Structures are given as structure tokens and as C-alpha cells.
């Protein structure tokens, strides 16, 4: 397993506040890692430590397999980040802003500006002053700027905050493209469960500075699919009919009264009709939809700050 970034027991305190508490996170190469947590849960502090803007009190950070130290410089060039609100010279065009940034970075290949502007969908409006940009356009320009050095890891703190639905959709597509077409690893923080759920391959849930969960979305989806639960009057007969006459094999006996059917293409009304047709009476029945939201809500113990 190749990890592009790892933290081991990372802790940062500000006076009496433990902003980040014993966090061990693992970001795999090429994935979109969603860091989910409500306000003041420690997301920004964690990200700032990853790029050496804040020094941890305890713990270690490994980037591209190398241990980060206060004097690390070279490996940080392989990372692009927007951790603060991206600032630009508003009177200058997007293109000029990018150009100035290239000079500042000592980066000579300006052709790359065009490529980056195209990737974030701003090529045609590169000559427009940034002051006339919408919030979403500024965010995209910020991402283009963070990508100018073609980073392998892109760290974005709450990039969709304040965007309208169209802007959110555009950024979501951009993130997916950066990950799938350009093989860039992304670490994205958000307090929007729905957003993280849609884009992330791995989700890290941070609460009160602690990483309380780190899990592949695929695993959560596998574990939380829907099922039909029914209590027939004669469970043996019901099992016989379900297995031999209806050909369903993905079921489980929960106890002596209850059966759960996990086959996803079974329509409840048709199942009941089929069972009744084979003389199996049903005493109770319900369809369970265990949503991802429910999973995370349980994890956060009903923390309603998530939307
Ligand atoms: N420079 C600082 N000095 C003192 N306390 C700080 C500092 N930076 C962060 N904190 C505190 O650390 C905790 C975590 O803050 P952090 O900004 O990392 O959380 P966050 O999840 O990014 O929240 P938000 O989305 O509101 O920025 C908060 O209680 C915050 O007040």
C-alpha cells in the first residue's frame, strides 16, 4: 500500500485547547480523501501541519515516504494547497495573477498557465479582472494556481464553502477529473456530509480534534445496503419458498421469527404477493434503508451540525 501522506499520533494544542488530538491518518496515492468535521473540529489545523505552516506538539508526519521536519522544503513542492481563502490582485486579470505567481515561484514554463486555466474551465475568461469573478470562479482560479507546479497532492480546506449548487457541481467534476485523469491525490475537508459522500474514496471523520473514523466509502456502502425484513407465520415454509420457488439466495435468518432479504432487485410488493400465493402468511414486514447519513449520524452521536 502506497501512502502519499500519513500522520502518526499528531497533536496540536493552543493553550488549553487541543485543536488536533493524537491523529493518525493515512492518505493513499491517487485517492480523494474526504476529511469530514464540523466547525472548529480541527480540520484546518491538521492541514496546516501537513504543509509545515503549524508545528505539532507531538507526533509525526510522513509525506511521500519522508518524515517532515521544520526544515523540510523540497517535498513540499510536490504539494499544492488552498488552506486560506485564496487572495488575488483584483484589478489584474486571472492570467496576470497566474503569471505573477509563476514568477514568484521561479517557474519559467508559462505554457502551463494555459493548461491549468483550461483544466479548471477558466481558459476563455482568463483576460477578465479577478475582481469581476464569482466566488466559484475565484475558487477554481485558486485551484489552478495551486496546481501550477503540477503537484502530486492537492490539499483543499472547505473548497465548496459558499458555492451555489452549480458551482459545487463544477468543482465536484473537477476533483473527480483531477483524480481519475491526472492521478492527483486530493485531501478535501468539508462539513457537508453529502458532498464528501459523493466524491471521497476514503472518509476521515474528525470530531473535537480526534479522528474517530477512517474508512473506505466502498466498505460503508457494502455494509449499509437496504434489506427487506419479514416475519412469516411459518418460517420454515417461508425459507423453502424464498429459496426454492422464488430463487432468492441472499437472505439471512435473524432469529426464529425473522428473515432478512438482501437481494437488491426484489420489489417488496411482488415478494409479499409471491409468498401469499405460495400460502405463506406474513405477520409483519418492513423495508430498511440504512443510509450513509444514518451511519455518520450514529458515529457523530446525533451531531446535528452536519448537513
Ligand atoms: N492559531 C490559533 N490559536 C488559538 N486557537 C486556535 C488557533 N487555530 C485554531 N484554534 C482552535 O483550534 C480548534 C480547531 O480549529 P480549526 O480551525 O483547526 O478547526 P476547523 O475544523 O478547521 O474549523 P473551521 O471550519 O471553523 O475553520 C478551534 O477550537 C480553534 O478555535
Automatic annotation (TrEMBL):
ABC transporter domain boundaries: 5-233
Pfam families documented for this protein: ABC_tran
PROSITE patterns, sorted: ABC_TRANSPORTER_1 (PS00211), ABC_TRANSPORTER_2 (PS50893)
SUPFAM superfamilies xrefs: P-loop containing nucleoside triphosphate hydrolases
InterPro entries, A to Z: AAA+_ATPase, ABC_transporter-like_ATP-bd, ABC_transporter-like_CS, P-loop_NTPase
Keyword flag Oxidoreductase: no
UniProt keyword list: ATP-binding, Nucleotide-binding, Transport
Native source species: Paenibacillus lacisoli
Protein name: ABC transporter ATP-binding protein
Domain of life from the UniProt record: Bacteria
